[in-house]
Write a structure and sequence with these properties.
By secondary structure, the chain is α/β, with parallel strands linked by helices. The protein is 26% helix and 28% strand. Strands 6-5-4-7-8-9-10 form a 7-stranded mixed beta sheet, with helices on one face. It has a 3-stranded mixed beta sheet with strand order 1-3-2, with helices on one face.
Length: 181
């Protein structure tokens, strides 16, 4: 019985905010576009509570709301440190004029001035970014063999495809059997 009481008292003591306060937050990752200082500023309001009961989910959500942040892993380091491992978004193309697309076809919306130069432009109906990214990966493989470089890939509302090349040539694939075409 005294062991049980000792465990309960110890558990309550560890849950108190001033018992094991978080004193340090470190950030690690390869950054090209993420502003590390801005990331720390955004997550700092969520670095509250003790080492045991800090709300890691809210902290991650706050950091992942930044446009160039894809994923944050939070690791606790005894007794007073949180270590954030950050994965930055990798843009494979530009989506219309207002977004970027990662390799999974997910859209993200950083400031336009931060868009990398020379990205292929994809344009299609809403909700087609994943499909278009997969198609784009297949198309560039096929045309690289011919020495052609894709500059733009479009799909219209009727699901017809058009490929624009760096040399100005445009290829209309239509919507049926476009792999064969």
């Amino acid at each position: 019985a005294s062991l049980f009481i000792g465990l309960v008292v110890g558990g309550v003591w560890l849950q108190q905010e001033d018992t094991l306060p978080i004193l340090h937050v470190s950030v690690d990752g390869q950054f090209e576009h993420v502003d590390k200082n801005k990331l720390v500023k955004v997550v700092t309001p969520y670095v509250t509570g003790s080492f045991i009961n800090v709300d890691v989910t809210k902290l991650r959500e706050a950091g992942e709301a930044l446009p160039w942040v894809k994923l944050i892993q939070v690791q606790r380091s005894w007794p007073d440190t949180l270590h954030l491992v950050v994965e930055e978004q990798q843009a494979v193309a530009q989506w219309s004029s207002h977004a970027l697309v990662n390799s999974e076809g997910e859209l993200f919306f950083p400031a336009k001035k931060s868009f990398p130069a020379g990205l292929v432009k994809l344009a299609g109906p809403e909700g087609t970014s994943e499909l278009m990214t997969k198609q784009y990966a297949e198309i560039i493989k096929q045309f690289e063999l011919l020495g052609l470089s894709v500059s733009q890939l479009q799909m219209d509302k009727r699901r017809s495809w058009a490929v624009q090349f760096d040399n100005g040539m445009k290829l209309m694939l239509g919507r049926a059997d476009n792999k064969q075409r």
